Inverse folding.
C-alpha cells in the first residue's frame, strides 16, 4: 500500500477492451461450518454480474475424520458455495486445499472454454515446513490468454513476527513453480492477487486508542502503524503490490457470534489481518531492480512482457470492505471487487461440440466435435455429459474417452460413441464439455440439449437396475428435501 488514496477509474487506453468483473473473498473461518445464507458475501443481489469468483479460506476445519472425508467428498464450504452459485450458472473451475487452507475458483459458464492451462500448488511454512497449518495455496491460469495467479496465504501469527511474515511470503513467491513456460513462478504472471489471513497487526498504538479510532471511524489514524504498510517502506517486493484504502474496521479479533472485539482476558488488539492485494507485472525492470528482495538474494530475472503492448490489461478496484453480518468466526470476511479491462488474445473455443440426433437411454448416442484451433490433445482427453446447472468441471453424469470411442472422422467433425447404459433414464436438459488433460480444463462446451426420458424404463416402471447412479442420488436428495 504505497498510498491510501482510493482507486480511481481505469486509465483510458486507446484500445477496445472487454471488462470482466472479479469478486475475491478472504475469510479465516476459525473451523466453523458455513452460514446458511452467503448471498450478502457473494453480492448475489447486485445488479452487476460477476464473471469470476475467487474464494480464499483459512482455518477450514481439518480434524482427522473430517479431513479424510473432505478428501473423498467436497468439504462443507465448497459444497455450500457450489450450491449458492451453480443455480446462477457458475461452475467451480478449480480448487486446492492444504490442511485448513482452501482456495476455490468459480467462473460464469460462458468463460469456461477460455480459462486454460490451470494449475494449482501449495507451500507449507508451518512447523518445520512440514505441517500445513500455515503457508500458501495458489491457482494459476490463462484468462483469455492473460496469465493470472491467485495466492491465498495464512502467515505467521502474533505481533512480533512481522518480518517473519514477509519472509514467508517471499519464500512462497520464490519457491512455488508451475509447468508453464511463460509463467514458471508466481511473479512471472501478468497479474497476481495475494490475499488471506496475512496476520499483520497494528503496533505501537495502545488498545484504548485503537478502539476509540474504530468507534469514531477514524481508520486513517491507524494506517501508519499497520505492519504491512510499514514493511512496504523497506521491502521492494511488497512495494510492487497495490492495495485499496482500509476504509473499514479491522476484521480481527471478535467474540464469536457477536460484533464485539475480543472481551477475553487476553483482549487482543484489533487488526487488519485479512487483506487483498494485487500486482500488475512491471513492463520492464532495470538491472538494479531485478533483485526483488533488495537483499542481494539470488533470484531469477523477471521475464519481459512479450504481449503487453499488443494485448493490454488494466485493473480497477471497485470495492474493498469487510462484511460485518457474518459472525461464525472470530474474523470477519473481506471482499474485493475488481474490474479487469483486457484485450482478449482469443475469442473462439478450441473445440466445437454438439449432440448428434436425439438422445435417450433407449439407444446408443453419438456426439460430434470439431477442433477449431490446434491444441495439445492426448489419449487422456474426455467428453463429459453434464446436467444444466452443474456445479463443477467434474460434476458430470458420465464421460467418454475421446480417442477410445471415436467411430468416424470426416473433414468437418469427429463422431464419438456414447453407450446408452450411461445416459440417465429420467432425461433432462444437458450439455457436453470437452476436457483437455494437458491444459487441465474444459476447452469447448455445447449448447444445452434435451435428453428424453426412457420410454422403455417408463413402460417397465423405472426399474431400479436401469436407473443410473446419478438418478439414484438425485432421487434420494429429492426425498430428503
Amino acid at each position: 500500500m504505497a498510498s491510501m488514496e482510493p482507486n480511481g477509474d481505469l486509465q483510458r487506453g486507446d484500445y477496445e477492451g472487454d471488462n470482466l468483473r472479479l469478486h475475491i473473498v478472504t475469510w479465516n473461518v476459525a473451523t466453523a461450518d458455513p452460514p446458511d445464507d452467503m448471498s450478502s458475501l457473494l453480492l448475489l443481489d447486485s445488479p452487476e454480474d460477476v464473471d469470476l469468483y475467487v474464494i480464499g479460506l483459512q482455518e477450514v476445519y481439518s480434524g482427522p475424520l473430517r479431513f479424510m472425508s473432505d478428501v473423498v467428498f467436497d468439504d462443507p464450504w465448497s459444497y455450500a458455495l457450489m450450491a449458492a452459485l451453480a443455480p446462477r450458472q457458475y461452475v467451480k473451475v478449480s480448487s486446492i486445499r492444504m490442511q485448513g487452507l482452501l482456495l476455490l475458483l468459480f467462473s460464469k459458464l460462458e468463460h469456461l472454454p477460455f480459462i486454460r492451462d490451470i494449475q494449482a500448488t501449495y507451500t507449507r511454512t508451518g512447523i518445520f515446513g512440514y505441517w500445513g497449518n500455515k503457508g500458501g495455496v495458489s491457482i494459476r491460469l490463462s484468462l483469455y490468454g492473460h496469465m493470472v495467479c491467485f495466492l491465498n496465504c495464512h502467515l505467521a501469527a502474533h505481533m512480533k513476527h512481522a518480518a517473519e511474515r514477509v519472509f514467508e511470503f517471499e519464500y512462497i513467491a520464490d519457491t512455488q513453480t508451475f509447468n508453464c513456460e511463460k509463467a514458471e513462478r508466481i511473479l512471472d504472471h501478468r497479474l497476481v492477487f495475494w490475499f488471506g489471513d496475512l496476520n499483520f497487526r497494528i503496533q505501537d498504538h495502545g488498545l484504548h486508542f485503537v478502539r476509540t479510532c474504530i468507534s469514531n471511524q477514524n481508520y486513517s489514524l491507524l494506517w501508519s502503524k499497520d505492519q504491512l504498510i510499514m514493511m512496504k517502506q523497506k521491502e521492494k517486493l511488497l512495494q510492487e503490490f497495490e492495495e485499496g484504502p482500509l476504509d473499514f474496521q479491522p476484521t480481527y479479533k471478535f467474540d464469536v457470534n457477536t460484533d464485539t472485539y475480543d472481551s477475553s482476558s487476553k483482549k487482543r488488539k484489533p487488526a487488519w489481518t485479512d487483506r487483498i492485494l494485487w500486482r500488475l507485472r512491471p513492463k520492464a525492470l532495470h538491472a538494479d531492480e531485478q533483485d526483488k528482495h533488495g537483499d542481494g538474494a539470488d533470484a531469477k530475472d523477471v521475464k519481459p512482457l512479450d504481449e503487453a503492448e499488443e494485448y493490454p490489461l488494466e485493473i480497477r478496484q471497485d470495492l474493498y470492505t469487510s462484511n460485518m453480518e457474518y459472525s461464525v468466526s472470530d474474523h470477519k470476511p473481506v471482499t474485493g471487487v475488481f474490474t479487469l479491462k483486457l484485450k482478449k488474445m482469443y475469442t473462439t473455443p478450441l473445440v466445437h461440440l454438439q449432440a448428434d440426433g436425439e438422445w435417450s437411454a433407449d439407444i446408443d448416442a453419438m456426439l460430434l466435435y470439431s477442433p477449431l484451433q490446434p491444441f495439445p490433445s492426448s489419449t487422456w482427453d474426455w467428453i463429459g455429459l453434464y446436467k444444466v446447472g452443474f456445479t463443477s468441471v467434474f460434476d458430470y453424469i458420465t464421460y467418454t474417452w475421446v480417442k477410445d470411442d471415436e467411430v468416424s472422422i470426416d473433414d468437418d467433425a469427429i463422431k464419438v460413441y456414447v453407450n446408452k447404459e450411461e445416459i440417465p433414464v429420467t432425461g433432462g436438459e444437458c450439455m457436453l464439455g470437452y476436457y483437455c488433460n494437458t491444459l487441465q480444463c474444459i476447452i469447448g462446451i455445447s449448447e444445452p440439449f434435451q435428453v428424453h426420458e426412457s420410454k422403455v424404463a417408463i413402460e417397465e416402471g423405472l426399474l431400479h437396475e436401469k436407473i443410473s447412479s446419478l438418478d439414484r442420488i438425485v432421487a434420494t436428495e429429492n426425498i430428503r428435501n
Notes: DSSP finds ten helices and 21 strands in the chain. The first strand starts at residue 18 and ends at 28.
